[in-house]
Amino acid sequence: MGDFTVALNPAKTFRSEILPINRTSPAALRPATAISFKSHRLRGPAIRASVMPREGQQQQQQPALLSSPRKSELADVIRRSALSNCLSETNLHATVPGLQSKTRGKVRDIYDAGDHLVLVTTDRQSAFDRILASIPFKGQVLNETSLWWFQRTKHIVSNAVVSAPDKNVTIAKKCSVFPVEFVARGFVTGSTDTSLWTVYNNGVRNYCGNVLPDGMVKNQKLPENILTPTTKAADHDVPVTPDEIIERGLMTRADYVEASEKALCLFEYGQQVALEHGLILVDTKYEFGKANDGSIMLIDEVHTPDSSRYWIAGSYLERFQNGLEPENIDKVFYV
User: Fold this and answer.
1) Where's the SAICAR synthetase/ADE2 N-terminal domain (predicted)?
2) CA 35, 37, 40 angle in degrees (round to 5)?
3) Residue 211's closest CA among 183, 191, 241?
4) What is the pLDDT of residues 87-106, one digit of tens each?
5) Pairwise CA distance, residues 217 & 220, whole Å
6) In terms of CB atoms within 10 Å, which of 42, 72, 157, 173 comes out highest?
7) What pTM was computed for the model?
8) 96-173 topology per CATH
9) CB-based burial label for 75 (10 Å; 0-12, 13-18, 19+)
10) Domain map (residue ranges) of the chain
11) Which superfamily, per CATH, for 176-321?
């Protein structure tokens, strides 16, 4: 594969290289101007964007700052260096042969490559249905977390992953995506209008086809895990019952039954693994698609911080008994 240039935005032109940049190495922590493409199992490009100052400037800056009492100046250099590694925009369909179109999601840029899709997980952070900022290395964390789970859940359901030629990129089989998100829940919690606690506290006892018992309190564990599916609406997700999904032709009954069973098995397995690591997987969402051979596949992402709520297991019971909110790792703070 030869060198070529890729413009990710009008202000920067990125040079392709055969060897990828390791963003955790000292070199990757410098502001970067390199992008690499490498594929081991598929003829598809992967991207790495970082921004590099001249070596002389780097060598002059670091020793002086490391030995300087001016901690704030050092912190500022580190902060600016890390921010330069944000991967906020990609434009591969305009520069890479074989990519037919681009779909820009809140976090992922998806490129059509015929029978496959190139999914680039960027560092964009979205909340409340809008993009708020970009966080260095966030895309890498999301992509590699999903890949870890995809590999470990193949005994439950097959998935669309073909290869991961870059830390931010997954090559996936193209399939027919069901317009339904399978939201799995193990606790009565949340604060949004569609959260289980909000609707329960408002008196709802039959939610998305689930009959809920009286007398539950916020953050209490459900008698059993449940699914509260939603339709993938343009602006926001809309809760829906299984019967409505089938009546509206969003899925056949057989497909829904199979996907829902897989979703609950995935959730139970995810809870077991999380607990082994001191965490409670409180709720999450799954998406499925149908392959050309008719089989149902897991797609999108699995048990990532973006798609899941986690609590600290060790302190949950004591805090719950004392009426305190659980310690969690699902909140993102912007400063």
Assistant:
1) 103-333
2) 150
3) 241
4) 999 988 888 888 888 999 88
5) 6
6) 157
7) 0.75
8) Phosphorylase Kinase; domain 1 (3.30.200)
9) exposed
10) 5-83, 96-173, 176-321
11) ATP-grasp fold, B domain (3.30.470.20)
